[in-house]
DNA sequence: TTAGGGTTAG
């Protein structure tokens, strides 16, 4: 009767029936009863109760009963208890071994799964197709390609390649090791393919950054009569995002909605949120997120990352705050990795330190990604010593934390230290990657280390066989340009093997601004506006170049270009942390509760610094307005609002740390020098380009506008 | 009369 219930899916009735049987004492359950009841029980405590009865009755030795117990424990995630049952068994068949292996695999215990597999081989038990398809998925997480290839050879020798599960598992395994040709050849040799085979092949190319090939296989799959399922769409969403194909993102989303896939499934919802945010359409991403019936921690992480990667750090922090208010959601490693870069971005040191404390508490400091994000927070918040201390604590066998600490010293102008860290990295046998060299080259250019920078560029190609990308080229242009070798920088661009992008021309334009080269600046901007017509920051740079040499007709020309092209300046904002609270100020904004006091303080400050020699430089105002209004505009630049707020909110002589999303304007740079003098405060401003340490009327960056 | 074991994801 019990098995009748279970066979018909009425598990609860099966268990009830069993309890009644025992209670009434009418029939004594035997070893035929227990496998069925164990299959039916819906919770761990029922399972444990049954285990103790079985134990008392001595049925644990029965192969069927013991296997069912083992399965029950794995099903509830208590695979360790399953292992204990397994160890006590006197007789095991192949199915028992397979159940133990897959029990560990499905509970994320790859090492234990492999241990059981090895024991099985030692005992001379021959594996079958089920063993192979269980063991293959753990090879990649364990980074054990040898094991995967051993299984593959076994498959060929024993004719198991005709099993569709085995071939699918092989495709997935090789794809995870980036061995696409092998994955593809296994797919090609399959006699019978199912939807999983197609999904696996598509995902293989998608995960190895070949969205075009992946899309081709999707089309072929449809041609072969297969209908896409949830997993196909998860890959498709990523394919569209990788190709930057905003048009098709909506079609993919529409299909998902039409097939009614999005409501019940968190996975596909998360994939769509990720797709829109990677395409820069964060509003859509948020809307999809809001419309999801169920959300898990990954849904939140995806949205936070989306905001952070689209440069909207404050919004990312807002989402994180809301997430922390949800009792159901426990932050994961991924949450920390998504929120910490937002803190780095705006210089939210206290918030970062809070997360640091939390990281120590939950034992995640040994995670290289979390550790590296924290190093980055400390470095970008001006705490290089703390960053260094942390660097010594995190595992550093991979290039990731090294890149962060090298770049950290670079943005503070400590290029020599970056170079010596790179030397240590080489000594410790850690292989640098392309990011290491971007960090190194930019460190060299900020510190004016021209020869060393050029040597690094050579080393990267000759010793490490890394082909330079646009970022590396941009660094070299910056390196040469900043040092005044403008013609060399221009020649370098002309000889580049790839088409220069905006960052390369932008580096040249920036160098022309520093060295006052109007002709080359105009030329660079012509190229620049061809590849990026919308970035107003570059127009401002060009205007500065003209203004500096008094070529007002040039300033007017740039101003009308901006107006004719209907360009709007990216709103400038600055942030500051005072008394553990984080404040953001937008240029010209008067909505802050202390706005009146801030503007009053600024008026006093401006008067004082004018007395000691400050003269406003209106060339930084692109708007076509009267002089007194220009002064008004300069005075309400976001960095000044933040500085004034810092001055009125902290005791005298307290250092002030500001973050600005754009470059600090030349007039603010000059004014801040004077402010640091009269207030006797150290003022640190990190802008989108570098750190500026102001103290006693001077700035460490040495730039002159 | 009883059971257990496999492949794809954000």
TrEMBL record:
Highest taxon in the source lineage: Eukaryota
Keywords: Repeat
Residues in DYW domain copies: 613-705
UniProt name for this protein: DYW domain-containing protein
Molecular functions per Gene Ontology: RNA binding; zinc ion binding
Gene Ontology biological process terms from the UniProt entry: RNA modification
Pfam family, one: PPR_2
Spans of repeat PPR: 93-127, 163-193, 194-228, 296-330, 398-432, 433-467
Taxonomic lineage from the root: Eukaryota, Viridiplantae, Streptophyta, Embryophyta, Tracheophyta
Record bears the keyword Lyase: no
